[in-house]
UniProtKB/TrEMBL annotation:
Keywords: Cell membrane, Membrane, Transmembrane, Transmembrane helix. Its main location: membrane. InterPro entries: Lfuc_symporter_FucP (IPR005275), MFS (IPR011701), MFS_trans_sf (IPR036259), MFS_TsgA-like (IPR050375). The keyword Lyase does not apply. This is Major facilitator superfamily (MFS) profile domain-containing protein. One of its GO terms (cellular component) is plasma membrane. It comes from Secundilactobacillus malefermentans. The keyword Acyltransferase does not apply.
Amino acid sequence: MDNNVTEKTKGFHLFKLHVKETTDGYTDKTPMLQYILVSLLFPMWGAAASLNDILITQFKTIFTLSNVASAFVQTAFYLGYFLIAIPASTLIKKTSYKLAIMTGLSLYTIGCALFFPASRMATYGFFLVALFALACGLSFLETASNTYSSLLGPKRLSTLRLNISQTFYPLGAMGGILLGKYLIFGNGASLEKQMAGLSGHERLVFGERALQNTLLPYKYIIFVLIFMLIIIALTQFPSGKPKSTPEHTVEKASIGETINYLTHNKKFLQGIFAEFMYVGMQTAVWSFTIRLAMEVDSSINERSASTFMVYSYAAFFIGKMIANFMMRSMSPSRVLQIFSVLGILSLLYIVFVHNMSAVYFAILASGLFGPCWATIFAQTLDTITDKRHTETGGAIVVMSIIGGAFIPIAQGFVADKTDMSISFIVNVVCFAVVLIYATGIVHNHKQESLED
């Protein structure tokens, strides 16, 4: 009996599906058009996340915020991810990955549109609301796309597929930071120096004018989102869900069963904690790289300092490419272990050396983030042996992104109490957690090999 089953979907599709699905939700080969379209969603949330690094620098000066208060940009952003991930997985379970992706693109568009009234209101709180709404859309996209990318092809290559899709993320991040660099930040002295001599009405008018620049990147993003939404609507996608056959019946699991299964899965919980700490570290390093550059060299302005973020995302991209190449000859967990050791050393350099070279080590650390998210994500999903729980399990991994809401605040607190360089010790602790996780996986694989 052939275990391959082809999804039959209703409706008009301009771009058809030409692969077969297996009973465990994977496809017999990778549908390249569908895989590319899903992979192109990754730079879309990369652009949004990198623009937060620009907004933190912009809002800190305009609204006269502390490092802790400015980090609430990330809190609002990642809180949206956290709260919506389970509803997103429920939608996937009841309908399809495709509908969840289209819902995410729609909410992302609405979130971008909210920046227009936010700039008119000119209040920090309204911008945080807009960021929260935008992040709700991104939560749908990430919950669907991370899991879906790993399913679009044979199971044995699932981790590599997700790592390749994740390689597109820094391209979007670079695009976002360049939009912010040239459309939000201006030439001349830093924003802080320009506003230092202003008071009262003059300062208010200058701040409102600067906030208008915040709209510009989101205008371009809206056009891209609408285009992506149309193309995906016209494309047929596989279901990515386990199938029932005469020999194998798949019963749906209730949310209670899934939660009970996952909370008793020790390896799954370890992966969640590692992802929480990793995302927090990544977000914190990128949130404060511009501030680090401006603190160690007070002569540069925001636009000049944001160039270092372009380098950071370029390093991130290169790091992913190197990690993908290394995974051809060694296990993903071993690659993660090597990158973690080097990442810890890079971050320790920033803590102890307070000059411009520390900024370049922050860039190096970004490169060493390369294999982290995708490898931890895919290996955490692999611990779910009962595939009825995959959608919700993937959503809970996405919920671990909430680390990006807390770790930057912790680093901002340390920075306010000491200085920006010393505050990077928070990230050293986070990378140490990732190293411990990777070492544990490597050890488990060795044990399994010995038993075989």
